[in-house]
Amino acid sequence: MSHSDTIPLHPSSQSDIDEIENLIHASVESSPPTVLPARPPSPPRASIPVSSSPFIPSNLPPPPPQSSNHKPPSVPVPPPIPTSSLPNDRPNIASSGFGSPPNTLTEPVWDTVKRDLSRIVSNLKLVVFPNPYRDDPGKALRDWDLWGPFFFIVFLGLILSWSASVKKSEVFAVAFALLAAGAVILTLNVLLLGGHIIFFQSLSLLGYCLFPLDVGALICMLKDNVILKVIVVCVTLAWSSWAAYPFMSSAVNPRRKALALYPVFLMYVSVGFLIIAID
How distant, in Å, are the alpha carbons of 17, 31, 151, 185 from that of 208? Predict the structure, then answer.
């Protein structure tokens, strides 16, 4: 028996199948078609307004229009800063040693020379001549320099060498070495005694105090008279000692004042002796 052969159904089975098919068709044709309920609609969503302007419109009322006569409120202008609030006889902050120093890299050479000469003249007046700042040495040489002392030492050495009849170069070398080394030794002496003074400020002070002796040496060179030389040297020696006294005495303890002033007086006496002795 092969698979292609079919077996005929029993007549009763065939009639049952036909009856079931007729019942299915009859039930389909007799019953109305049922429609499934549709999906309920979704609730409406809030819409976001889209505007082409980058600013959000405001509900505030617009400002009232301004009249043409209305003027904007005036802003108070601060008063101008005065350029110089100090008296005319006092230097400004930069020139008194405080604040940022002026820029001198791009200024002309003549301006630099004039500024240095004016500083030398000012310091010379504060040290050698009577002034109200002699009681306060810190104010007198606040703007100290070394150009003035160097000029007075060289000038005194040149006058002594011109006054000498022989060995002019040796006279200049001895005078320059005596003054330069003496100023350094005197400054170290004050510092070792516990003095409150700046090293280069002391050198500047001792150099400026040589100005009276420079004047005396110049007069002695022009007038070759021994009596006149002695008188001029004594006056200029007293002048130089008077100029150096308040600064050197106030730098040390009052008990050590003589130890600080005696070497200064001794150096000036040595210079005066050179002025008289050189012929």
Answer: 148, 138, 9, 16
The candidate with the shortest Cα–Cα distance to 136, out of 216, 250, 27, 56, is 250
| Helix, strand, coil shares, percent, the chain, to 5 | 60, 0, 40
Output the pTM of the full model: 0.57
d(CA 195, CA 200): 13
Type and span of the H or E element at 11: helix 11-30
Chain centroid, CA 156 distance in Å: 39
- 116-123 long-range contacts (CB < 8 A, ≥24 apart) are 116/145, 116/147, 119/143, 119/145, 119/147, 119/148, 120/145, 120/147, 120/148, 120/151, 123/148, 123/204, 123/208
| Amino acid making up residue 107 | E
Distance (Å, rounded) from C-alpha 239 to C-alpha 259? 20
Residue 178 CA to residue 187 CA, distance in Å, equals: 14
Read off the tokens for 210.
């040589």
What one-letter code names the amino acid at 118?
Answer: S
Place of tokens 């005694």: 193
Cα(139)–Cα(126) distance, integer angstroms: 9
Query: Which amino acid is located at 213 in the chain?
Result: L
60: pLDDT strictly greater than 80: no
pLDDT digits (tens, 9 = 90+) for 144-185: 888 889 999 999 999 988 888 778 888 888 888 888 898 899
Any idea what the Cα angle at residue 252 is, between residues 246 and 254, rounded to 5°? 80
Tokens 């002391």 locate to: 202
